[in-house]
Amino acid sequence: MLLSGTYSLQWYAKRSRGLKPKSVLQELDPLRERARTMQAELDARKEHVTRLEEEKPRSQERNNQLLIKDSRYVCPSVHCA
After folding, report:
1. Which residues partner with 6 through β-bridges?
2. pLDDT band, residue 74 (cuts 50/70/90)
3. Domain hosting residue 42, numbered range
């Protein structure tokens, strides 16, 4: 019995009546492993974003310097600026 993409409480209640604690724990093991994996991926992505944010000002400054250098090379006269 699905309600908007999720199982209803009644479905879980009916299902849980027939389950034994050992089988419930066995079903939880893959979910726990998936949660650990997803948490590790989230942590890695957060770390990557942090490094990118730290690197951003340096990259912007380097790009600005290259643009200034390039504009001098392409148009060295005063009236081109």
Report:
1. 3
2. low
3. 20-75
pTM tops 0.85: no
DSSP the chain: -EETTEE-HHHHHHHHHT--HHHHHHHHHHHHHHHHHHHHHHHHHHHHHHHHHHHHHHHHHHHHHHHHHHHHHH--SGGG-
- Tell me the CA end-to-end span of the chain in Å, nearest whole number: 69
> What number of residues does the chain have?
81
Of 7, 20, 17, 24, residue with least CA distance to 32? 24
Number of domain units in the chain: 1
